Amino acid sequence: MNNKITTKEIILGGLLLATGLILPMIFHLFGLTGQIALPMHIPVLIGGFLLSPSLALSLGIITPLVSSVLTGMPVLFPMAVIMMFELGTYALTASLLSGKMKMKIIPSLIGAMAAGRIAAGLTVAALVALFGVKMNPVLYIKGAVITGIPGIIIQLLFVPSIVYVLVNINNRAKSRQ
């Protein structure tokens, strides 16, 4: 088993991080809020399918943190903290299901989305217990899923397509070498 992280993976991770910072700004320009369109989730989920588990997890954790520090969105506490666990879980789960367990992309994507929501709920529960945050974990997840339906549809439509295109481009480049 080769656990070596390649320069190509690091560059791809950096590009996906930058996309995760820019895409929400673009969506906001058109009046689409993050809670509805979930633009930061898209590059993180793509990273889950294209990066090693450790880099995918790192991308998922770092993206909302850097966005919060640089742009103020999401607000660092509690939202960016919740999103760090949620997106980290998305990317790690997608990487493990598709890469290590060889599941197809759609079931891996749905599994990652479910695992991320569970992680968000558990994070909210921990923040309530540890810091007295005034949130209900069940209502948070219910609200996030209902409000995020347009973003979930966007993810289900675009993430598999983008991953498919990028994998094919990579395979063609490898075959020319």
Walk me through what this model shows.
- This protein has 177 residues and is an all-alpha fold.
- The protein is built from 8 helices and no strands.
- The protein has helices spanning 7-29, 34-37, 41-50, 53-71, 76-100, 105-131, 137-147, 149-176.
- Helix 3 (41-50) runs parallel beside helix 5 (76-100), helix 3 packs parallel to helix 8 and helix 6 runs antiparallel to helix 7.
- The model has no long low-confidence stretch (mean pLDDT 95).
**Element-level helix/strand string:** HHHHHHHH
Number of helices: 8
DSSP strand (E) fraction? under 5%
Task: Give me the secondary-structure category.
Answer: mainly alpha
Shape: globular
The largest β sheet comes out as:
none
Oligomer: single chain
Give the low-pLDDT segments: none
What share of residues is helical?
A: over 70%
Residue-averaged pLDDT: 95
Tell me the number of strands.
Answer: 0
First CA to last CA: what distance? 23 Å
